Amino acid sequence: MKCPELFEYDDFLMNDKWKVTIQPFNGSHIVFVDNIYERPKRVHNYLSQLPVVSLKPPGEKRLNGKDFIDGQTYADLRHDPCRVNLFKNLIKFYKIEQNDAFDENPIAMFNQFRLLQDHPGQPYFWTPHVDCRLNVLIYLNPDEQHTPGTSIYSAEPKGQEQLDKDTEHVIPWKDPSWFTERLCILNRFNCLVAFPGQWPHGQTIVDDRYKDKTRFTEVTFF
After folding, report:
1. Domain presence at residue 170
2. Cβ(73)–Cβ(53) below 8 Å
3. pTM of the model
4. Are 215 and 103 in contact (CB under 8 A)?
5. Is 197 helix (H, G, I), strand (E, B) or coil?
6. Is 1 domain-assigned?
7. Overall domain count for the chain
8. What sign for the dihedral angle of Cα 91, 96, 102, 108?
């Protein structure tokens, strides 16, 4: 039996100095922060050794585990003062009021995604959806630099119907006539991006690259 690798708290510390870029868009802003983790490859190594637990409950019509693997894992990294400071500044910038300190520094969540079947071909979109008031993503694949990351959409009437339902694991590939892609945020290793979660959005899957490896994205919702 292979001995598991030991990771330390220091492997998950964030940098205390950031390069921040703020881009106006769609009546609000997208915030980019470069070089988030001090040891991002250690974070990636940690994620690469974990099993995948389904992001959503199983169901008869759900395709998770058949056409793709979509999971989520967690880590309690709230000990890091730089993480606390980063989230407080993002919440302040977007003028979001939280109920208590716990809500300002939640447990870290890491999404795990992998294709089991071939990409269906252009121009299908992977499940545009909406979340909370603010989404914060950190891209954690070392070999992804300026590749498709997350798309922002506007919804047509049929797309709006889909946004009101949970069809992510039943109809994962959405017809392009239902949505219009307005912007593609590029995937850059160890880069954070924040944007309003009410904007229809979804991970940008355009080919079979994630059949050969797992896509890792840290996600935080406020």
Report:
1. yes
2. yes
3. 0.94
4. no
5. coil
6. no
7. 1
8. negative
